[in-house]
Amino acid sequence: MIHGIGTDLVEVSRIERILKKWGDRFLDRVYAHDEIEYCKNKAFPAIHFAARFAAKESFLKSLGIGLGMGVKLREIEVSNNALGSPALKMNEKIGHILDNIGVNAIHVSMTHTREYAHAIVVLEK
């Protein structure tokens, strides 16, 4: 049974502008250490930062909440599983939220072009 679905579309140029203006202050506020390292090692880091940003926003939407409603973007980490597919890693606090609402699976898909990054998250009970 589906508990929630969230989707988000991010303009890569917006993330590029933010990175130029705020640099590490933005990165440290939004991304986990492993995400930063992963994206910085890509030919076009902003594309990968944008896709992860979209996934984090999509997760919040799938919960039915927005920014500033108890979950920080840095607490949601996008990683890759053994097959290279994206996966969301949650801290203990978010794990408790998911347990309390009966979510037992999180599905995430991301895609990007040079201009846009998109993600969708489905929470399953």
Distinctive features:
5 strands; single chain; two-stranded antiparallel sheet; alpha+beta; 125 residues; 3-stranded antiparallel β-sheet; 30% strand; Ribosomal Protein L22, Chain A
Your description of this structure?
The protein has five helices and five strands, in the order E-H-H-H-H-E-E-H-E-E. It is of the alpha+beta class and 125 residues long. It has one domain (2-124): 4'-phosphopantetheinyl transferase domain (Ribosomal Protein L22, Chain A), CATH 3.90.470. The strands form two sheets. The protein has a three-stranded antiparallel sheet. Strand 2 and strand 3 form a beta hairpin. Helix 1 crosses helix 4 and helix 3 (33-40) runs antiparallel to helix 4. The protein is globular and about 40 Å long. The mean pLDDT is 94.
Provide a quick synopsis of the model.
The protein has 125 residues and is of the alpha+beta class. It has a single domain, classed as 4'-phosphopantetheinyl transferase domain (Ribosomal Protein L22, Chain A, Alpha-Beta Complex). The chain has helices at residues 12-22, 24-30, 33-40, 45-63, 92-101, and strands spanning 2-11, 76-80, 86-90, 105-112, 116-124.
CATH superfamily: 4'-phosphopantetheinyl transferase domain
Share of helical residues: 40-55%
Number of helices: 5
Instruction: Provide the gyration radius in Å.
Output: 14 Å
Low-pLDDT residue intervals, each spanning 5 or more residues = none
The gross shape turns out to be: globular
Domain count = 1
**CATH class term:** Alpha Beta
**Averaged pLDDT:** 94
* Series of H and E elements: EHHHHEEHEE
Fraction of residues in β-strands: 25-35%
How does the major sheet shape up?
Answer: 3 strands, antiparallel
Overall strand count: 5
The third-level CATH topology is Ribosomal Protein L22, Chain A
Strand adjacency order, main sheet: 1-5-4
